[in-house]
Amino acid sequence: MPVTVLLVDDEPLVRAGLRAVLEAQPDIEVVGEAADGAAVIPLVRRLRPDVVAMDVRMPLLDGIEATRALLRTVGAPPKILVVTTFENDEYVYGALRAGADGFLLKRARPAEIVHAVRLVAEGESLLFPASVRRLAAEYGDDGGNRAARAVLERARLTEREGEVLRLMARGLTNAEIAARLVVGTETVKTHVSAVLAKLGARDRTQAVIAAYESGFVAPG
Amino acid sequence: MPVTVLLVDDEPLVRAGLRAVLEAQPDIEVVGEAADGAAVIPLVRRLRPDVVAMDVRMPLLDGIEATRALLRTVGAPPKILVVTTFENDEYVYGALRAGADGFLLKRARPAEIVHAVRLVAEGESLLFPASVRRLAAEYGDDGGNRAARAVLERARLTEREGEVLRLMARGLTNAEIAARLVVGTETVKTHVSAVLAKLGARDRTQAVIAAYESGFVAPG
DNA sequence: GATCTCCTCCCCCGTGCGGGGGAGGCGGGC
DNA sequence: GCCCGCCTCCCCCGCACGGGGGAGGAGATC
């Protein structure tokens, strides 16, 4: 059965765009739309979507409050994909802290949007592009350790994948990582691919950026 | 004429190793050795080396003080390559602040060592692997702007190269950077190569790491 | 026992990347 | 005038990278 999606955005144009992009996929179905956060909860109760694609900035009830309300009041809540215009939107942090599963830039390419929806539907987190660095701030001043663990959990990286990401963020090639971990390069490639997928990164460079931006690795 | 090098390290073994590596090159000549920073200044006056490869941790006079003294007292001072065991050596920052032109890990491969010597001899800076992030701290809290400019100057990146590095650090591919800057991909490749060379980075991933570690781009 | 996750390793394949060259135009400085 | 730094674009070439599959073993869970 297809992935069902509810669109929440105050701009009809954006909703139409998302609908067009998503419905072009045989395995994704847009089951409803809402123009404001206040309308979300009853709609979710009725339509039971797998994913809610929700704008952060909306009149009446914004994406953060709507996310919080959804998670608090709905049993078995849908996955929440926060939609935003700006990479460094203050609201995004709030939404992620409120429990959103990922976020999506409005200027992302169709393929990326589809990818993001599928990913969160499968239970993965989408932290890239990572304005999530401030996660670190939440976790006090004991450095990046707890923050790193938090990122690990949010992105659902396995321990091994976390090790690989850390080595990627030190500039090592797959072969060097393989030597360091005493495994085959094919194994490293597998882990790297998993890391890229979970972080929503296109290549190792973006993964390293995400590692820095999320506080998974800290400068210094 | 060859590049002349003066070796300064309290461990004879290290000096011998550097000598062996460097003298294997037809265009590099080791013209002298010293076991402590205190002996450096007269030797430099006498030998006029192009490059001084200097350990940071030495008895009597360490690499930081020796660097400072060299730059203060010698007219047309040599390029100074700081040699260190650890990537995150506190002393390294001091040496770079004191005016050293680059640093070198003792565990670097011979080819890298040779490369570093040639590079600083040519007047380039070698900031990678970048424990230079704390440059940012020197420049107050006005964010990364002045720090970025400082890194630009230290690494002698041109304005265009700085732009390219910034886009690399946002995860863009060469083609995307080319589109953004409205130039050909070949042009971008040229800039990228220049950035890699000047930062001493092996690939774009390492360049991005250097950008973060140096404070050239800031998380957030 | 069956199922699941994780780690490990293997295949094929296209391509973006980076190194090696060279070259022309343009501006500023000597 | 000349030279030099910078930006621009071009060639060839090897390889690491990343996507697409598949598969076996260890360990935990049910």
From TrEMBL, chains A, B:
InterPro entries from the UniProt entry: CheY-like_superfamily, NreC/VraR/RcsB-like_REC, Sig_transdc_resp-reg_C-effctor, Sig_transdc_resp-reg_receiver, Tscrpt_reg_LuxR_C, WalR-like
Entry-annotated residues carrying 4-aspartylphosphate: 55
Domain HTH luxR-type: 150-215
Short name of any one Pfam family annotated for the protein: GerE
Domain Response regulatory: 4-121
Top-level taxonomic group: Bacteria
Key words of the record: DNA-binding, Phosphoprotein, Transcription, Transcription regulation
UniProt-recorded name of the protein: Response regulator
